[in-house]
Amino acid sequence: MTRSGNILAAQPGRAGESLTDAGSSGWYLYGITHAATPDALRQVIESAQHAAMPGATGELVQALIRGELAAIVSIVPLADFDSTALGERLNDVAWLQEMAWAHNAVIAAVHERQAILPAKFGSVYLSRDDLGAALDDAQERLLAELSRLQGCDEWAIHLYADRAVIEQQVTSEHPALQRLRDEISVARPGRAYFLQRKLAGEEAAAVDDALVELARGVITRLRPYALDVVQENPTAGSDGAVGDEIEILRAALLIERKNQDVMLNEFEASVLGVVGLRGASSGPWPPYSFVARPEEGRHDL
Fold first, then answer.
1. Last residue in a domain, options 107, 127, 150
2. Cis preceding linkage at 175, omega within 30
3. Which residue in 35, 209, 221, 244 has a CA-CA distance of 20 to 30 Å to 98?
4. Tally of domains within the chain
5. What predicted TM-score, i.e. pTM, was given to this entire model?
6. Run of H or E including 156
7. Burial of 265 (0-12, 13-18, 19+ CB in 10 A)
8. Are 149 and 115 a contacting pair, CB within 8 Å?
9. Counting runs of H as helices and runs of E as strands, what totals does the chain give?
10. Is 12 domain-assigned?
11. Residue among 177, 159, 155 at smallest CA distance from 167
12. Residues 277 and 214 in one domain
């Protein structure tokens, strides 16, 4: 669960310039963090190097320092990220999985030690100067973002409902629906037919409303423990659903670590004893969903 875009805006190359025209190597960006002290940054880089970028280059993860910021990068062959090469590699599932794993592993390694603004997977800058200029231009904004995210993790929460169970509860307890049933029981056949169609529509609407309220109630209980919340529209056939369940809530929460346990306890309590409702959570993650990243000026997967 991420907001699309990029952390930085670099100066693009000359018009018509391809990646391979720009030079033999580029700068793959994992994310931006505080430059911190030399000792602290060295420890961060040592942790990240265990998850170095795979591929043709043997270059290790390193830091490009500009002012108070450090870009966590690896040098990569630009030919590997040219449009022609990518067109072939995007069909290589094993390569994509390995690249994505390494990208996220480096970000997670930094995140364990200090705040990081994750870059979009596949962010490649044509030169050191492009990346350095982007860091200079965005220094104040990025430092503010890092300050906001310090000591925080992203948690994903999902809420699943058995629609048939919820429907049974709603339709048996809803006064307006019961009145319609009473009308149908005494109506002539023609009127009963139209009332039955009306009843079916109102039952479906009542169940939909109940599901929305269940999801709203859970997220309302969790908001006091979150610095920020990003909600997504659940998709049909969610992988996390079991049996006849449907996903009714999918959200990312930015949680200060001191509030982690109380948030998880509150989430568990919000679904405890509610028949037909089940919750699932995952984390802690780096704050992928909470980085505002205007796009332009680099080549992305």
1. 150
2. no
3. 35
4. 2
5. 0.79
6. strand 152-162
7. exposed
8. yes
9. 10, 9
10. no
11. 177
12. yes
Give the integer Cα–Cα distance in Å for 141 and 146.
9
Please tell me the distance from the alpha carbon of residue 225 to that of residue 299, in angstroms, as a whole number.
Answer: 37
Helix (H, G, I), strand (E, B) or coil at 3: coil
Rounded distance between C-alpha atoms, residue 269 and residue 6, angstroms: 37
* Helices 93-111 and 38-49, axial angle in degrees (round to 10): 150
Residue 111 CA to residue 94 CA, distance in Å, equals 26
**Domain of 157, in residue numbers:** 153-288
Q: What is the CATH number of the domain that holds 195?
A: 3.30.70
**CB-count exposure of residue 47 (10 Å: 0-12, 13-18, 19+):** middle
CB-based burial label for 226 (10 Å; 0-12, 13-18, 19+): buried
Beta bridge partners of residue 278, listed in sequence order: 160
Cβ atoms 251, 232 nearer than 8 A:
yes
What single DSSP character describes residue 299?
A: B
Residues 132 and 259 in one domain: no
* Same domain as 198, residue 187: yes
Percentages helix, strand, coil for the chain (3-state, rounded to 5) are: 50, 20, 30
Task: Dihedral sign for Cα 127, 130, 133, 137, please.
Answer: negative
Q: What is the pLDDT of residues 224-279, one digit of tens each?
A: 999 999 998 876 556 676 777 899 999 999 999 999 999 999 999 999 988 999 99
User: What are the pLDDT digits (tens) for 276-290?
Assistant: 999 999 999 999 999
The full DSSP string for 218-259 is HHHHHGGG-SEEEEE---TT-TT--TTEEEEEEEEEEEEGGG
